[in-house]
Amino acid sequence: MPRKSGRNADGTFGPGNPGKPKGTRHKATQATLALLEGEAEALSRKAIEVALEGDTVALRLCLERIAPVRRDAPVQFDLPPMQSAIDAAKAAGAVLDAVALGDLTPTEGAHIMSLLEAYRKTLETSELEIRLSALESAET
After folding, report:
1. Which domain holds residue 58?
2. Burial class (CB in 10 A: 0-12, 13-18, 19+), 104
3. Does 89 map to a domain?
4. What is the value of pTM for the model shown?
5. Quick check: 104 and 95 in contact, CB under 8 A?
6. Which of 37, 66, 95 is the last residue of a domain?
């Protein structure tokens, strides 16, 4: 006898069975939070005391909470305006100059270049669409 699992033929759940609501926590997480309930202040104080006594792991933990590591930082440099795909080449030159002068790190320059490339593709596609529309309207 086939087992009723509540699933469709493709393995997905059918209507009326939405599963767990978004944001629902796992039972182990709920149990851990229940154990820590009301102890956050005491645990934080103990971590600080141990860090001040010289425990480098506790010190790192405390410092990471005070001033978390920045994943990326904003950069400022002059970038010419881009209105066409040709302007993107000028902007790429400006990025290369900024890297060569030390205003940007090579990694920052690479990230900016990838943004420029995506923008150039968007501009190029837009220009092609305009030209295609003009050709199509000229044919009619």
Report:
1. 27-66
2. buried
3. yes
4. 0.49
5. yes
6. 66
